[in-house]
Amino acid sequence: MTNKDYNTCVSKYSDDVYRFVVYSGMDRESAKDIVQDAFLSLWQNHANIDFSKSKSYLFSTAYKLVCSSFRHLDVEKRYAKDVQMNSSINIEDSYESRECLYAMLENIPEVQKSALILKDIEGYSYKEIANILKLSIQQVEVYIFRARVALKKRAMENNLV
Amino acid sequence: MTKIDINNYELYFLRYIEDRLSAKERAEVEAFLAEHPELQEVMDLYDPAFTLTKDDDLVFADKDLLTHAKPVKVLPMWVKYSSVAAVALLLLLIGGLWLQRGDAVESVIVAKNQGNADTILDESIVDKPVLLAENERKPILEPAENIVDNSFKANESKAVATADETESDIEEEDNVTDVNNIMNVIDDNSTVEYYAENVVEDTPQKQDDETDETVVIEIYSDALAEIVGDDMEEIAEATAEKAEDNVDDEPVVIEEYSYALAIYVVDVNSDYQYNTDRYDTGLAEYAIVDKREEVKEMFAQFSEMTSTLFKRRKEKAEKELMAFANILVAEYNNTKEKINYYIAENVNK
After folding, report:
1. A1-73: CATH topology
2. Quick one: how far is CA B82 from the chain centroid?
3. Cβ contact (<8 Å) for B68 and A7?
4. A116 and B62: CB-CB below 8 Å?
5. Which tens digits make up the pLDDT trace of B278-322?
6. What's the pLDDT tens digit per position in B200-210?
7. What are the angstrom distances between the C-alpha of A79 and each of A69, A107, A111, A157, B268?
8. Contact at 8 Å (CB) between A110 and A150?
9. DSSP class of residue B75?
10. What architecture is domain A75-161?
11. Which among A2, A3, A14 is the top mutation candidate for probing chain B, defined by the most B β-carbons within 10 Å of its own β-carbon?
């Protein structure tokens, strides 16, 4: 991949990677850092990465960084966030409210959430998601199934559907 | 493909809903559900319409920070070499500082004043055989002419007071016209006294704001020296562009540091400025004498952060380093005050 290709990646994919990270539950400032780090990694390896694989590389890197960030999050902080979210979902938000939907994503395991985001938002195939998340296709299918079921279940519990 | 069972039913449910099963497999799923009616609820909870949608308003606004800079251009030789020389000098300076760990050591202070043939030498120190073993301690500073001469020879050996040097060796340097203060700091008092007696009075003074700026520039230059190894050409290019075009581009930290380095290079090639710089350098060294580990850590962090080449990180790095530099400048001013006080109390009487 050339310098020009790299810069094309920036203009084409940075929004997508940023959205992926934010939907994964990172705050926006941390999401910016993760996007920067993902692109830094792409830049450092751009000579060895084919342009056609750059987007999956970025998502794959961002996913690892998100998981790593969550591992470092204080457990109590996350717990407090969960409690707050549980109580705040019981409101009159409409089912269509994206914010509310993404808020419900918070409690879904990271891998399931990422698989669902890649499927719904980015339109990746199960095979592509498997490649990005380093899972088998069957695992991806199961995770997406579980994520969507969990999402619907939570929406029902909170009278959102 | 294996048959549906209690461990893999989710996979089959998904494929069933998405209509990706053969007629036989569909029949197997239906038979399985008949056996496990409690799982029908799970099947029903999977709603393909319950999907996430893209929020087009959520965008990464700082794309320009990710776009990588243009390729490095070929540089004029003088730019490359003067930068190399400056970096070598700066590395020597900072290396010399870090070599001086906190353990008690004897100091060697040799100084000559510009335009004054009298060698100013601390007798008590000369009497003791404490001149430096070459591999142990190196002087922080070197004569101006050495710097000028060696500015195109990055790796030339520096003026080092070795164990083989004698008093006569040192006296031979009396004719050197610039201030030749090789300073290793032992403790506050000896250094302050040394400066008060030997350097301060005869060293050309600068305005306070100028000296402060010089200290900061030198600190930055040292920081630059730390990171310069990997990005020499890029930094040198930035220096060249900045120096030649004097273009007020959007501030890019690495260029600013390069510019600071360029100023420093010019400064050390001027005798007058060099003397003044050395005075300031000595004070700056003194100011950070108890902070070497902190400085080292700061530079390491700085190096790591600036290596990202991203503006936001660089700004963060710059802020932290600037804050630290301010502390050092404050220490420097404090030291200067102590020296002035000492002069007022002792020397002028």
Report:
1. Rna Polymerase Sigma Factor; Chain: A (1.10.1740)
2. 19
3. yes
4. no
5. 455 555 555 555 555 666 666 666 555 555 555 555 566 666 666
6. 333 334 344 44
7. 15, 10, 19, 19, 59
8. no
9. P
10. Orthogonal Bundle (1.10)
11. A14
